[in-house]
Amino acid sequence: MAKNLGGFLLLVLAISICEAASIFQPISDSHRSAALELFTPADESFGSLEEAYEALRTFEILGIQGKPDISTSSCQSVSETLVSSSSTTNGLFHALKVNRILKCKIDEEIFQGIASRLKAVVNDGNSLLDFYYSIGSLVLVKDQTSGVDVLLGDANGIFRSIKALSQSDGRWRFSSNNPESSTYAAGLALEALAGVVSLASSDIDHSLIVTLKNDIVKLFDSLEKYDDGSVYFDEKLVDAHEHQGPLSTTSSVVRGLTAFASVISGSINLPGDKILGLAKFFLGIGIPGNSKDFFNQIDSLACLESNRVYVPLILSLPATVLSLTKKDQLKVKVNTVLGSSAPPLAVKLVRAFISGSKDSSVIKTQELKFDPENAVHFLDVLPKSIDVGTYVFVFEIVLHDSVDKEVYTTGGQTQVPIFVTGIIKIDNAEIAVLDSDLGSIETQTKLDLARENAALLSANHLQKLRLSFQLTTPRGKFFKPHQAFLKLRHETKVEHIFVVGNSGKQFEIILDFLGLVEKFFYLSGRYDIQLTVGDAIMENSVLRAVGHVELDLPEAPEKAPQPPAPHVDPYSRYGPKAEITHIFRTPEKRPPRELSLAFLGLTLLPFVGFLIGLLHFGVNLKNFPTSAVPATFAILFHIGIAAVLLLYVLFWLKLDLFTTLKTLGFLGAFLMFVGHRILSHLASTSAKLKSA
Amino acid sequence: MARSTSKDAQALFHSFRSAYAATPTNLKIIDLYVGFAVFTALIQIAYIAIVGSFPFNSFLSGLLSCIGTAVLAVCLRIQVNRENKEFKDLPPERAFADFVLCNLVLHLVIMNFLG
């Protein structure tokens, strides 16, 4: 008996090291309201039949009524797709899926036409997606109408051609050209093979089924796991073309597995823990944010709800925080993943221990009572050995009917963190001022920490301040809280915080001001005293002003550290900063306008003087040529010079150097030519005069 | 002593005046032009002494145009002067053409620097 118990404890210890304590909730009404929000299309109809199917299937599983006008628009696109001869198998597949839910009125002839098309695709198909969509559509046609012949003649051959795309590790390739394999494809393949089995006119070879079962077991070897016990499939190769995340890969495999398990006789050799782990993965997502993930989660959970491998049962607690003051009861619910009721079973509280400790259980194993009205297992009253604190309760589900053990999986023992809160009694609180040497009490005041106190004390630097109190739990035991602080705040808002420690059962702090003088920055005056006692499981945490103490400290010496600057309002750091005014370069002092204009006039004066001087000399134009050609050249010469000077004026006023130089080039060339002609003419005439 | 120096100065001045009357008219015209250019420069210097040197580039431009054209006129006078043996073979029209060309180039640079 002792050996068994010892072995049992070791096993439980091993499990507690491997698995963290966590809790999963089955699908509830919050999922239903989220589904209504996510799946309602913006306009009257859905974008595609695939989206319509996802929405309708989710509503179907969750038991939500869809809007009727959406049904009519979806039915219309369904019939259009089924009638049209250019629809792809993909389109037919989704149209038939929608029709299964909506049950639109479709003629049997249309089904006949579709069935013959699909059979042709099945026989000619060579890629996994061809097989998947065509076989899936044929299965749907078989369910929706009885008069059409959908049975496959060469079921064995089709089974083999799908199986040929598989790999040794249990994954599948999409086609024989593509060497990359994926787990998502494995899920699709399993669904397609399940369809082949259900559509076979004669029985499939038993050896093929057995090989496939082994492949499934190998596929499940590639499961990945999280610490809380959930398991999932993930793709190893990140295919940039269409990466399926863990959720869609795992849902694909779950659909394939449950579809296959439902059509074959016999069982697949998979442990129940893996199925439960898959259920935990889907439930652990919570409420997904987009419609595709939501559909994948809900559809996979619906497949797991009633599958032929193992049906997972989820143990959940409506509340994990129990209050001793309110005398809360421990309640446990056991449901299937979609929240339906479980078969007859009992829940045992195997052990409970304080979390983080390796002590043995504080309670003995007991069975919870069952309330059939609310379908809740509960414990009347918490055992006396449960005091306030953080515990881990270990539950075990025991099925009443031994037949159910083959159908349901419960996952052995489940660990759940439980918080037990209560009111902590604070007794014997007192504050005193002691004389340093003798330890005798000068003043002492009793405190009632249930309300604000205003104890007035005074002390000098030779004395000590002592605060003490005791804490007791509801069960009468000693309690050490997370926080026990004493804060002294000076009038200038300088604060000092001290931790209150305990010696045995008494919490006590003694502030020796002789040693603290420098820490207090030599600030004398009135200090406010504030006590904080708090803990997560304490329902009556205390943050109270206890009183004031007038401290008389000596003068600060010269080199004493200054108290820290007053606390800057953190919001001012992000507020607007002071405005910067740019200091522009002061412009130079300009002279008054009149002065500048006066000097302008003065500058023109020498020119006038020049002209007067010329007249005084008797300047004449006698040398100006009189005959026609030289005269024109002379005139053109003067005009050219005037043009260049005008160009310079324009250059100063508005032109830029490039245009000026360009124009100057032309003018200069003209001037050169003209000047040369006139000046050489003048030179020749004067030479003639000289020689003559 | 002062009286003799002033008498010498007066005598110098008279002899200069009489010699100058003999110079040809065209040289006198050039001298007048040089005087006009230098006067304009002096007026600009007086202005800058009063109001300060901002903007400096304009002052330089104006001043150097006066000085430059005066220098070019002096060159023209040297080349045109018939008593100057060095330039006997150079026709005065050619010198005048050089004067005009150099002045135009000078004034282009001046206008660019004027700002």
From TrEMBL, chain A:
Kindly tell me the pathway this chain contributes to: Protein modification; protein glycosylation
Which stretches make up the Ribophorin II third domain?
428-551
Q: Please state the span of the N-terminal signal peptide per the UniProt entry.
A: 1-20
Q: Name one GO cellular component term.
A: oligosaccharyltransferase complex
| BP-aspect Gene Ontology terms | protein N-linked glycosylation
Its placement in the membrane is given as: Multi-pass membrane protein
- Record InterPro entries: Ribophorin_II_2nd, Ribophorin_II_3rd, Ribophorin_II_C, Ribophorin_II_N, Swp1, Terpenoid_cyclase/PrenylTrfase
TM segment ranges:
595-619, 631-652, 664-683
Residue ranges occupied by any Ribophorin II second domain in the UniProt entry = 313-420
What Pfam families does this protein's entry cite?
Answer: Ribophorin_II (PF05817), Ribophorin_II_2nd (PF23861), Ribophorin_II_3rd (PF23860), Ribophorin_II_C (PF25147)
Q: Which UniProt keywords apply?
A: Endoplasmic reticulum, Membrane, Signal, Transmembrane, Transmembrane helix
Which compartments is it annotated to reside in?
Endoplasmic reticulum membrane
What highest taxon heads this organism's lineage?
A: Eukaryota
Which ranges carry the Ribophorin II N-terminal domain? 27-305
Give a short account of what the protein does.
Subunit of the oligosaccharyl transferase (OST) complex that catalyzes the initial transfer of a defined glycan (Glc(3)Man(9)GlcNAc(2) in eukaryotes) from the lipid carrier dolichol-pyrophosphate to an asparagine residue within an Asn-X-Ser/Thr consensus motif in nascent polypeptide chains, the first step in protein N-glycosylation. N-glycosylation occurs cotranslationally and the complex associates with the Sec61 complex at the channel-forming translocon complex that mediates protein translocation across the endoplasmic reticulum (ER). All subunits are required for a maximal enzyme activity.
Q: State the similarity comment.
A: Belongs to the SWP1 family.
State how it assembles. Component of the oligosaccharyltransferase (OST) complex.
Q: What is this protein called?
A: Dolichyl-diphosphooligosaccharide--protein glycosyltransferase subunit 2
UniProtKB/TrEMBL annotation, chain B:
Q: Name one GO biological process term.
A: protein N-linked glycosylation
Pfam families the UniProt entry points to: DAD
Q: Which cellular component appears as one GO term in the record?
A: oligosaccharyltransferase complex
Q: Where in the cell is it found?
A: Endoplasmic reticulum membrane
Pathway per its UniProt entry is: Protein modification; protein glycosylation
Which positions carry the signal peptide feature in this UniProt record?
none
Span-the-membrane segments of this chain are 32-50, 56-76, 96-114
Q: Which UniProt keywords apply?
A: Apoptosis, Endoplasmic reticulum, Membrane, Transmembrane, Transmembrane helix
Its record classes its membrane topology as: Multi-pass membrane protein
Q: How does this polypeptide assemble, per the annotation?
A: Component of the oligosaccharyltransferase (OST) complex.
Q: Which family does it belong to?
A: Belongs to the DAD/OST2 family.
Role: Subunit of the oligosaccharyl transferase (OST) complex that catalyzes the initial transfer of a defined glycan (Glc(3)Man(9)GlcNAc(2) in eukaryotes) from the lipid carrier dolichol-pyrophosphate to an asparagine residue within an Asn-X-Ser/Thr consensus motif in nascent polypeptide chains, the first step in protein N-glycosylation. N-glycosylation occurs cotranslationally and the complex associates with the Sec61 complex at the channel-forming translocon complex that mediates protein translocation across the endoplasmic reticulum (ER). All subunits are required for a maximal enzyme activity.
Protein name (Swiss-Prot/TrEMBL): Dolichyl-diphosphooligosaccharide--protein glycosyltransferase subunit DAD1
User: From which source organism is this entry?
Assistant: Juglans regia
